[in-house]
Amino acid sequence: MAWSLQNWLTHSTNQVCHTHPLSHFSCTPFQCCLLADYHWGCVCVLCRSVEGEAVEVQPLLSEESLKESLKKQLEFCFSRENLSKDLYLMSQMDSDQFVPIWTIASMEGVKLLTTDMDLILEVLRASPMVQVDEKGEKVRPNYKRCIIILREVPETTPVEEVEALFKSEKCPQVISVEFAHNNNWYITFQSDTDAQQLKRHYNSHSNWLIQ
C-alpha cells in the first residue's frame, strides 16, 4: 500500500518539518531514506516519487547544524549515562580506554548524520569531552571514571567469586558487579576516588582498567 510521505513521517518519527510540504509525494515506507535531526526537530528526506525517480524533497542540514548534531551524538556515545548501559561500546575499549573511530562511525546514530570519516574526526578533535590519539585513529572519553573493567574473566565465573575479589578491608565499597561482553566484568564504585583507590591497590594487575 502506498502511503503519503507526510503520513509515513508522522507515524514513523513525529519529527516532520512543516516548512517544506511533502504530501504530494507517494511511496512505501521502504522506498524512503530518512535522515533525522533530532536536536532541531527537522528531517531531511530522499524519496522515490510515484514515477520511481529519486527526489530530494527537503534540503539537507547546513554544515554548522550538521556539525552541532554530530557533536551532540558523539559526546552522548561517551557520556556516563550511555557508557553505563552500552556494554558493547565499553567492550571495544583497549587497555588505554581507546575505541577505534571506525567503530564509533558505524553506530546507527552517527551513520544517520554522516558517513564522512574526515568530518567525524574533525568534530571529535574539537570536542573537550573526548580525546583523539595522535594518529587520528582512536578516541576515548576525557573524564574521570568510577567503573573498573575486569578483563579475561570467563562468563561462567560465579558472580560471588568476582565480588569476593573486592571484599578486602582496603577495598572501597562496590555498588554493582555486572558481566558484559568478551569476558569483561564491570565493577561500579560510588565515586571516581574509590575507583582510583582500588586501581592503586591492585596496581600489579595488568588487566585492570579505570573506565
Automatic annotation (TrEMBL):
PROSITE patterns: HTH_LA (PS50961). GO terms for molecular function: mRNA 3'-UTR binding. InterPro entries: La_dom_prot, La_HTH, RRM_LARP4/4B, WH-like_DNA-bd_sf, WH_DNA-bd_sf. GO terms for biological process: positive regulation of translation. Coiled coil: none annotated. Keywords: Phosphoprotein, RNA-binding. It comes from the Eukaryota. Residues 60-149 form the HTH La-type RNA-binding domain. One of its GO terms (cellular component) is cytoplasmic stress granule. SUPFAM superfamilies: Winged helix' DNA-binding domain (SSF46785). PANTHER family: LA-RELATED PROTEIN 4, LUPUS LA PROTEIN-RELATED. This is HTH La-type RNA-binding domain-containing protein. The lineage of its organism: Eukaryota, Metazoa, Chordata, Craniata, Vertebrata.
